[in-house]
Amino acid sequence: MLIAAGVVIGIVVVWWLIRGVQQTEVSIEADQTIDITPEQIESIRAIGQWEFLSISNEELVDTTRKGLFRDDHLARIYYGTVRLGIDMQKMDSTWITVQGDSITMWLPRPTLLDKNFIDEARTKSFHESGRWKPTDRETLYRRAQQRMLRYSMTPQNIETARKNGETQMKRVMQSMGFMHVNIQWK
User: Fold this and answer.
1) Is the pLDDT of residue 33 over 60?
2) Please, which contacts does 56-64 make with residues 24 or more away whose CB atoms are closer than 8 Å?
3) How far is CA 137 from the centre of its chain?
4) Which residue of 53, 69, 161, 176 has the fewest C-beta atoms within 10 A of its own C-beta?
């Protein structure tokens, strides 16, 4: 009798386990939200300056000083690369917002990244006669710098830098998993 009761209890337990397994459901769901962490935001800001467009320049600048018996001439060729982009270090804490798989970024207008863009090692004296002071050479340098800026900082180049920046930012954010990337320029 004890054996029969044990067998009946064993059958009931096995039946109960089988029925429980059949009623158990397993489902897998994907979390569609993307959480961007403060560390990720800081790593983007840590990039520092983000270059969107570089423009190579070559400028010939000259000057003449009238003398009593002869004139002095100074002509130099300057080379430089003007770089347009944004400085991520200057971004405030509200420059990026996330909602689900969408991200919105407020970026400043692309600007000059480095004021010292003339490559002085490549600067060549094209023609020099007479005696010139360092201040005269500095004046030529400043004139070359102003010309390069005038030819480089055009609305067309700034717009090209903005479009390049938008493309680069979208690629980075999409590689992080964001489906919808909205770039707003301040």
Assistant:
1) no
2) 56/80, 56/81, 57/81, 57/82, 57/147, 57/148, 57/151, 57/152, 59/144, 59/147, 59/148, 60/126, 61/140, 61/143, 61/144, 61/147, 62/126, 62/127, 62/140, 63/136, 63/139, 63/140
3) 35
4) 69
**Of how many residues is the chain composed?**
186
**H or E element at residue 147:** helix 134-152
**Contact criterion met (CB below 8 Å) for 61 and 127:** no
Tokens for 44, please give them: 């983007």
CA 183 and chain centroid, separation: 12
